[in-house]
Every structure is written in C-alpha cells, then in structure tokens.
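User: I'm curious what two different proteins look like when written out as structure tokens. Can you demonstrate?

Assistant: Sure. I'll show them one after the other, since each token string lines up with its own sequence. Here's the first protein:
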Amino acid sequence: MYLTLFTTFTLLCPLVLARSITVRNTKSWPTCFKVELSSGSFPMNNVCAGHPGFTVPPRSTTTFHPSADFNGALTPITNGILGTRFELNMAAGCASPALTPNCPIPLGGTFYDASMEMGLSSATLGPLDNRRLPDGRPSLAGEQDPLAKANAAWLRSPNRWELLRYPRYLVAAHRGERLVWVYSDKEAPFVVRAFFQLEAGFQAYMAPGSVAGWKPRTALEKELTRVQDEKSVWVRTQDMVVTVY
C-alpha cells in the first residue's frame, strides 16, 4: 500500500514534521505493537513477539512522536496472533505544492489505511480530532467490533455454508445463525475476503489492491479491488490515534 507507493514522493519533496500518534488501550491487559519502518524512526520500548515495538499498559493512553520522515506500520499482537495492521505515511508531503507541482501532496497531512490481510482485531485508526475526510466520508479505518459487523451481514449472505467450511476464519453457533469468531490472514480464501469486504463492509484492505499491483480478472475481483482502493485515504493532519478495543 502506501508504504511502497508514496516512498517515491519522499524523494521528490522536502520532508514535513510528523506530529503525534496516540495509542489508546481500552483493554484490561497490556497491548504490544510491532513497528515496521519504511523511513524515519519511531520511539520503541519493547520487543513484541520477536519484533521491535512498544507496549501500552492496560486502560491507558500513550502518545508517541515519530520523526518527521516517518512512514511505517503499527500492528497489535496478542498471544503471538497478528491483529489489524495500521499503515501511516507522514513523510510524503511537499513544503510548497505551488513550488513543487509534481508533488501533489499538501503539507502536513497523513496517508493511512488499515490492512486485515495479515491479521484482524478490534482496533481503529483515524485523526485525533475525528475530522472527516476531504470528501466528507468518515475517517475511521479498521473496525471497533469486527464480529458484530460480520454478524450484521451474516444472515443475508448467500455464501454462509461455503464460508463455514473455513473454521480458521469464521465459526458459527446456534445452528449456523450467529458468528462467534472471525479472523483473516494471508491464507484466507477469496470467498472469506469477499464476505468481509463486500458484504460486511470492513473498513480495511482484505487483499492487495491495485496499488500493490494485483490484477483482478473476474467481475467480483474487480469490484473487490475498487472497494479496497477506497480504503487508502488522506487527512490534513498529523495528529493520529490508534484505539484498541
């Protein structure tokens, strides 16, 4: 996603100052985050499942100040299981768009998205002030309660019985009428990804979009790609917040 696409812009444009990434942990136990860097630096205080990262204590909030050229990803890990991966690029900005017409990215913004390609969890990312996107859409990426959102679409799905063939990703109770477990990772079959993305409407990448060079072939794959590409967004702020539920 943006970790690769917008790295080229950082070579063309002066760097801008990153401001803050606040992490709210609403759980009653510590949450560990893996940190990945494409550029810049991020303050880390722990090792998370063998990866450099940081830990936020239970029911607490911590604010981090990454470097001005920060472009990376934060992923919560619970008992070795990857959660939703949050990608943030604060480095791809121009000092003056008028003076650098080949760099159409305004000063001081953040490109971001949520990816559930490698894991899924109850967590969100968005602007600290909860502002909407420039086109008026809500700005929150990820899902506060993916199980509840999947259940809202479950009984309408024409693919329920096929989906239940994959208990690693969906488990139902009450004669198949209610989901009690949902998950996603890089091995998830297409029918699972399509359910989460197109039927449940998860606000995250469920598979590589066109930015990653994925070539859709069928009409369903093309629709999935179109919806996924809408998940990569920009806001005119560099004060962001990740919330773990």
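Here's a second, unrelated protein for contrast:
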Amino acid sequence: MTTAAVFGCTGAVGSNILITLLASDAFTSVKTISRRLPKSQSPKLEALEELDTSKWGGMISTLSPKPSAVFNAVGTMWATAGGLQNQWKIDHDLCIETAKAAKEAGVTTYVFISSAGTRGLLSRYVPYSKMKIGVEDAIKELNFEHAIIMRPGMILGERETPKAPFLEKTIGSLHQISPAFQDMIGQDQKIIGRAAVAAVCIAQAGKAPSKYWVLEQADVIKYGRDEWRE
C-alpha cells in the first residue's frame, strides 16, 4: 500500500499529478495540503486546506498513513505573488521547507517540478532559475532514498491563469505542424503529471537510473506519453 502527498495540487501540473495518482492502482491513499481545496474528488483522497503555508511542512508528519512519496508542484508568478521577494518565499523558501520536513517525516521519495533551462549558461543570473537551482541543490543535499527532479519545458494546456496566453497558445498549436518541434519547447500538463507519477513508480520499484534522478524534456515525453500505460 502506497500513500502519496501533493503540494501545489490546484496548479496546472499539480492538479494533473493528483488526477493521475487517484486513477492509479499503485497508490491506495492520496493526501493534499493546499490553500484551497482541489477540484478532484475520490474516496482515497484526503484534502487538507491550510491558508498559512508556514504550517505545511509540519503537517506532513501528521498524515496517516504516512506518505512514502511527496510531490512538490508549488509555483507562482511574479505578478501574482506581488513582486520577486514574495515569489522567492513561495518558489524557493517554501519548497525547501517542505522538502526538509518531508525528509524529517521519513518520506523516501521526493519529486520536485523544476524547469527546463534551469542549469543553462545564463541561469544563475535569472531570478526564476536561481530559485529552481536553490531548491534542486537543497533536495540533493537532503539525500532522499529517491529524489526526482522534473524539468519540463513550457507548460501547455488550459489553466485558470495562463502565464503567457498568446505564447502558450502558439506553442500548443505547433503539434499540427511539427509535433517533434513542439516537444522540444513545451509539454502538456497532463503529460508532465503522468511522467512524475511514472517516475515514482519506477524509482520505488528499484529501477531508477540513480537515487538523484533528473528528468529533462525528452524524459517527460517518454514516460508521460510515449511509454505511458493507463
């Protein structure tokens, strides 16, 4: 029996991770901790609503059954957060806090949704990339039994608040011209969610290529679409 917990369950990727977990026979219990309740419902879902994000990490140890896997798909936009400093508190500080709490609670597998290009040539000068790098490095130092870093490209598909509506729509329509070209730029949120769940199943079966496993865009497509089985 496997229990998973999801942070960021109301976002584009997190909601699809949740949908995939609820549909999977590999997970018998799913917990979510969020500022608002997810739309998904299931007898095996326990959704906890907590507006104070500083309490999220401490809530992991109170979950029963204890999750063996935690998915972190937390993320916000500069404008939504009210500036870079506030975005840093969520996309960097909160993510590290929950990772540390997960480790202390005995979680064996930790998944973080990062971003393609995080380790690019100029990434250390880009605030968004610096946030992702900081979280990735912290997770690696925590030495989980299995740590999985997802680095998808542009997140495609419908969402409540598009980050770049015109660009997302343009990239999303590229599959009509060249699916391979679209694959190099962005992936549908459903594919990313499936890939994250598939990676956990692979890791917990002892088949991950390394204990700190980074999945780039091609891996996301491989596990979330090309090799995905319902």
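A detail about the second structure: The first strand starts at residue 3 and ends at 7.
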